[in-house]
Write a structure and sequence with these properties.
By secondary structure, the protein is an alpha/beta fold. The protein has 25 helices and 21 strands. The strands form three sheets. The protein has a ten-stranded mixed sheet with strand order 3-2-1-10-4-9-8-5-7-6, sandwiched between helices. A seven-stranded parallel sheet has the order 13-14-12-15-16-11-17, with helices on both faces. Strand 19 and strand 20 form a beta hairpin. Helix 7 runs parallel beside helix 8, helix 11 crosses helix 13 and helix 20 crosses helix 22. Helix content is 36%, strand content 15%. The protein starts with a strand and ends in a 56-residue tail after the last strand. Among the domains are: 207 residues, 3-Layer(aba) Sandwich (Rossmann fold); 150 residues, P-loop containing nucleotide triphosphate hydrolases (Rossmann fold), CATH 3.40.50.300; 39 residues, no CATH class; 71 residues, 2-Layer Sandwich (Alpha-Beta Plaits). The structure holds adenosine-5'-triphosphate. The site of adenosine-5'-triphosphate has 19 residues, from helix 8.
Length: 674
C-alpha cells in the first residue's frame, strides 16, 4: 500500500525546547485556539508554526525548514515591482514565516491579496501552498473559517501562471478549462467563483460559474469563448458535459470543496461521472477540502487521488472538531416556544450583528422568517434568482436575520455573522460543525446557540462527536431582556431633539395630573412603550414557554419514573391540575422531576408542597436532566439515578442566560430590530 504523507501542525506548549525545536524534523507551534493562531498570524508572531511532512505509516518526517524555504524563495527572479513590494513587506518577511513575501506568490497576486487586507497566509494555506504548487494531490482539513478556499485558489493560480502547469496550459479563444472546482450548493459555487474571478482576474485568468436554475445559454457562450477556471455544482456541470459543452482534455486541476458533502449520496454519482470524464487522470492534480472528513470520505476519496497524495490535517485527532472561536451554547426549548424565544436570543447574543437561524425543514424556515420581523428565508424551494437577492441583501446588511435550511450550512462566508441559532439539534455532527462555523471566522469570535427539547433531543452524541463542551444555559428571562431594552430606550429618549417637547408637553402634564402613578412610574411605562413592551411575561426554564413556570418536585427518595412522580403529585393535587402540567422530565441525579405549570396555577401547586415530605419549588436554575438515550426503560427514563453531572455539580453552569450571558455588547439592538 502506498504511503500517504500526513502534514500536521503540532502543538508546542509541551515542553519542547528551542534546541529540540531545531533538531526536530517537525516545527512546532503554540496553538491555543484557531482564532488565536490566526490572530497570531495577523500579528506576525515570531513563534509561527511551519510545515512538517510526516509519513503517516512509518512516522518518518520530511521537513521543510523555514530557512530552506526562504533560500528557495530567494532564488526567485524579482522584477522592480516585486522588489518594491518585498521592501514594503520586509518587516513581515523577517518576522512572520507566513508573510506573503515568503511564498512563491507573484506580484499581481500579492497586490490583489493586499488590497483585501491579506498580508500573511493562514496556517492551512501556508501548510499546503508549496505542496500544491509543486504538483501533489492533496486532502486538506481545517476548522471552519480558517481560509481553506484561498488554500487552493492561490497555488492553483500561481501554478497556471508561473508554475508547472504554465507550459501546457491552453490559452486563446475557445480554450478548454484548466481548472474544475465542484461545490455542493449554488451559493457556495458563486462565492468561490468570486474569489477565482477576483484573484484570477488579477493574473489574467478567466472563470465562469455553472449552476442549476440559471440560464444555460449564457453559460454555453462563456464555455465556447473559452475559460481557464470552471466553478460549479455537479448537476449543471454534468448537464454541460452531456451536451458536449465542456472538454476536460486540458484539465490541470480538479477540486472538490466540502468533499464529504460532495461524496454523499445524491452527489456522488454525478461527481463520479464528472471526474470519470477526465481521460488521463495522471495529468491532473486533485484537491479535496473540508472542515469535516469522516473516515468514509478518506476511503472513497482514495479512488480519485494519486497514491502519493498528501494530507494536511489541522484538526487531526484533536477532540474539538468545531470552531474554537465560537461560544457553543444550548438552551432547552419546546418547539412551540421557539418563535417567542428566538427574538430574545437575538437580542441577547447577536451583538447587533447578523444572525443565521437554521431550521430542519424548508416549511419551518419560511414560517419562522414570516414571524420574525426583518427576517428572510433561504432554502432550496426558493427560486434561484430570489436566493441570490436574499443572500446579497443579507451580505449588504439590508436585513440582519437569515432563516435557512442546510443550504446555508456549508462554506458561506459572510462578514459579521455574530450569532447562529439552531432550532433543534441537526441529524449529524457534521451539520453542527458547519452550521456553527458560519460565525467565528477568520480569527473573529461568535456565538452558536442550539435549542433542544430535553425530552426528545440527544445532545450528548453531538457533544461527544464534535468535542464541543456545551454551555448549558436557560432561556433569557423576558424581565431581564426588558430591563436592558428600557436602558436603551432611555438612552434613545435622551437623544431626541428638545423640539418635540412643546407638541407633547400638554399631554404629559395631563397624564401626570390624572394618573395615580408617580412620574417615575409613568416614565417607566413610556419607556416600555418605546421599547415595544405592553406586558412582561414569565418564561419557563424547561420549555421556554411564556407564562409558564418550571417547578422541581422532590420527595426525599429517588424518583425512578414519571409515573411515580405523577403519583406523588396526585397525593395533594386534583387530577385536573396533575393533568395540566407539561414536559415532566426526570433530573439527571434521579432525585427529582421538573415540569411546567401555568403561571396562574403557581399558588395552587405551591400550597401543597409540604404534603407527605414533598418539596416543590420554583426552579431558578434548571438542574441537569436525563437525556433521551440515557434513560433505561423508555423515553422517560426509568433508569436508576440516570447519569451524574460531573461537570456542573448537578446544576447548569449558566443559570439564567440573559444579562451578561450574551456575546459582546449584549442587548445591542433592542427596540430597533423588532
Ligand atoms: N490569509 C488570510 N488572511 C486574512 N483573511 C483571510 C486569509 N485567508 C482567508 N481569509 C478570510 O477568511 C475567511 C474564511 O475563509 P474561507 O471561507 O476560505 O474559510 P473555510 O476554511 O473555507 O471555511 P468553511 O469550512 O466554513 O468553508 C474569508 O473571509 C477569507 O477572505
Amino acid at each position: 500500500m502506498a504511503s500517504e504523507d500526513l502534514m500536521e501542525l503540532k502543538k508546542s506548549g509541551n515542553g519542547s525546547s528551542a534546541d529540540s525545536h531545531k533538531k526536530s524534523k517537525k516545527t512546532k507551534i503554540d496553538s491555543g485556539s484557531d482564532s488565536e493562531e490566526i490572530k497570531k498570524s495577523k500579528k506576525k508572531d515570531k513563534k509561527r508554526k511551519a510545515l512538517s511532512l510526516d509519513d503517516q505509516e512509518n512516522g518518518n518526517s520530511e521537513v521543510l525548514e523555514p530557512d530552506e524555504k526562504k533560500k528557495k524563495k530567494k532564488k526567485k527572479k524579482k522584477d522592480e515591482d516585486e522588489a518594491k513590494l518585498v521592501e514594503e513587506d520586509s518587516e513581515e518577511k523577517e518576522e512572520d514565516p507566513n508573510a506573503l513575501s515568503n511564498f512563491r506568490i507573484s506580484v499581481p497576486l500579492r497586490e490583489a491579496l493586499i488590497t483585501k487586507g491579506i498580508h500573511a497566509l493562514f496556517p492551512i494555506q501556508a501548510m499546503t501552498f508549496d505542496t500544491i504548487l509543486d504538483g501533489s494531490d492533496l486532502i486538506g482539513r481545517a476548522r471552519t473559517g480558517q481560509g481553506k478556499t484561498l488554500a487552493f485558489v492561490l497555488p492553483i493560480l500561481e501554478s497556471l501562471i508561473n508554475g508547472p502547469t504554465k507550459v501546457s496550459r491552453k490559452t486563446g479563444y475557445g480554450r478548454a478549462p484548466s481548472v474544475l472546482v465542484l461545490l455542493p450548493t449554488r451559493e457556495l459555487a458563486l462565492q468561490v467563483f468570486a474569489d477565482f474571478e477576483f484573484y484570477g482576474g488579477a493574473v489574467g485568468l478567466t472563470s465562469c460559474c455553472l449552476y442549476g436554475n440559471s440560464p444555460m445559454g449564457q453559460q454555453q457562450v462563456q464555455l465556447k469563448r473559452g475559460v481557464d477556471i470552471v466553478v460549479g455544482t455537479p448537476g449543471r456541470i454534468k448537464d454541460h458535459i452531456e451536451r458536449g459543452n465542456i472538454d476536460f482534455r486540458s484539465l490541470k486541476f480538479r477540486v472538490l470543496d466540502e468533499v464529504d458533502e460532495m461524496l454523499k449520496i445524491g452527489f456522488v454519482d454525478d461527481v463520479e461521472f464528472i471526474l470519470g470524464k477526465v481521460e488521463d487522470a495522471s495529468q491532473v492534480q486533485t484537491l479535496l477540502f473540508s472542515a469535516t472528513l469522516p473516515s468514509w470520505v478518506k476511503h472513497i476519496s482514495s479512488k480519485f487521488l494519486k497514491p502519493d497524495k498528501k494530507t494536511a490535517d489541522l484538526v487531526g485527532d484533536e477532540k474539538m472538531k468545531a470552531s474554537k472561536s465560537v461560544r457553543h451554547i444550548i438552551i432547552p426549548c419546546s418547539s412551540s416556544a421557539r418563535s417567542q424565544l428566538i427574538p430574545d436570543i437575538i437580542r441577547c447574543y447577536s451583538s447587533g450583528g447578523r444572525t443565521i437561524i437554521f431550521t430542519e425543514t424548508r416549511g419551518y424556515a419560511s414560517e419562522l422568517a414570516g414571524i420574525l420581523p426583518g427576517a428572510r428565508a433561504l432554502h432550496g424551494e426558493i427560486q434561484q434568482s430570489q436566493r441570490e437577492i436574499t443572500l446579497a441583501g443579507f451580505r449588504s446588511g439590508k436585513f440582519l436575520t437569515l432563516v435557512a435550511t442546510n443550504v446555508a450550512a456549508r462554506g458561506l462566508d459572510i462578514d459579521n455573522v455574530q450569532l447562529i441559532v439552531q432550532c433543534e439539534p441537526p441529524r449529524d455532527v457534521e451539520a453542527y460543525i458547519h452550521r456553527s462555523g458560519r460565525t467565528g471566522r477568520a480569527g473573529n469570535t461568535g456565538v452558536a446557540v442550539m435549542l433542544y427539547d430535553p425530552k426528545k433531543s440527544n445532545i450528548s452524541k453531538i457533544e461527544r462527536e464534535s468535542g464541543v463542551k456545551f454551555e448549558h444555559l436557560s432561556a433569557p428571562q423576558p424581565a431581564d431582556v426588558a430591563k436592558a431594552a428600557g436602558k436603551e430606550a432611555a438612552e434613545a429618549i435622551a437623544e431626541i431633539s428638545d423640539s418635540v417637547i412643546p407638541a407633547f408637553k400638554a399631554a404629559a402634564e395631563e397624564l401626570l395630573h390624572t394618573s395615580e402613578l408617580s412620574p417615575a412610574e409613568l416614565l417607566a411605562k413610556a419607556l416600555a412603550k418605546a421599547a415595544g413592551y405592553s406586558e412582561i411575561k414569565s418564561r419557563s426554564l424547561l420549555s421556554s414557554m411564556e407564562n409558564c413556570v418550571t417547578l422541581l418536585l422532590e420527595c426525599g427518595r429517588p424518583i425512578f419514573s414519571p409515573s411515580f412522580a405523577y403519583n406523588v403529585l396526585r397525593g395533594f393535587l386534583s387530577e385536573e391540575k396533575v393533568e395540566s402540567i407539561k414536559g415532566l422530565t426526570l433530573t439527571a441525579d434521579g432525585k427529582g422531576a421538573v415540569f411546567d405549570v401555568s403561571a396562574d396555577d403557581l399558588d395552587t401547586f405551591l400550597a401543597g408542597k409540604n404534603a407527605q415530605g414533598v418539596s416543590l419549588e420554583v426552579v431558578k436554575e434548571l438542574p441537569r436532566l436525563q437525556e433521551k438515550d440515557q434513560s433505561r426503560g423508555g423515553r422517560f427514563g426509568g433508569g436508576r439515578g440516570g447519569f451524574s453531572d460531573r461537570r456542573n455539580g448537578g446544576r447548569f453552569s449558566g443559570g439564567r442566560g440573559g444579562r451578561g450571558g450574551g456575546g459582546g455588547r449584549g442587548y445591542g439592538n433592542l427596540g430597533r430590530r423588532w
